[in-house]
Write a structure and sequence with these properties.
alpha+beta, globular, nine-stranded mixed sheet
């Protein structure tokens, strides 16, 4: 609980979950994950279930590169309004600035962008990640965007050098007055 309170204090996000249950033979499950904006108490992210499957034999041996098979995150809802939740973005930006300013000058020159960190994480994970039933909603003064994705699958190819992504879903974007237009895009069959 003290770790969750530290995260809440640093990020402005309150994290809660309904249950954690390890399946002794095959998976570690977390249900009912919710991240709320501390100031508004409104949920920003909700996840029905996250499940990390593993091989018990490799886990006991301590071979973590083979122990974990796949992470499946199911029932994701993201609701972000840049006007209502602007304090959250400011707090996260300040945290990012503090983190980079505390590193020494040599590290600052070489500090990684968020995009580079995400790439590093995705390419070092020894297992695939599958997101199912994703609903994203973003709104600001000019834009209302909704994305509904049925599946997003990220896996390394056989060589381990490339990341394959398969995405199925639909995106609707409404430009609010005075621009007042609606754009829709559907996609599937994956991206490589």
């Amino acid at each position: 609980d003290s770790l969750l309170l530290k995260i809440e204090d640093k990020t402005g996000l309150q994290i809660s979950y309904k249950s954690i249950s390890p399946s002794i033979l095959s998976a570690f499950n977390i249900k009912g994950i919710v991240l709320c904006d501390v100031n508004t108490e409104l949920p920003i992210l909700q996840i029905k279930k996250a499940s990390l499957s593993y091989n018990l034999k490799d886990l006991i041996k301590g071979d973590f590169s083979k122990a974990f098979n796949k992470l499946i995150i199911n029932g994701i809802t993201v609701e972000y309004d840049s006007i209502v939740n602007n304090n959250l973005l400011e707090k996260l930006s300040m945290l990012s600035t503090k983190t980079s300013s505390t590193s020494n000058n040599a590290e600052s020159k070489d500090s990684k962008k968020l995009e580079d960190i995400v790439k590093d994480v995705l390419f070092t994970l020894p297992f695939g990640i599958e997101f199912r039933d994703i609903n994203l909603h973003y709104q600001d003064k000019m834009l209302n965007a909704v994305a509904s994705l049925s599946d997003v699958i990220l896996e390394k190819d056989i060589s381990g050098l490339l990341l394959d992504a398969s995405i199925d879903g639909k995106v609707d974007v409404s430009l609010l007055p005075p621009l007042q237009k609606k754009l829709t895009a559907s996609f599937g069959d994956g991206l490589n």
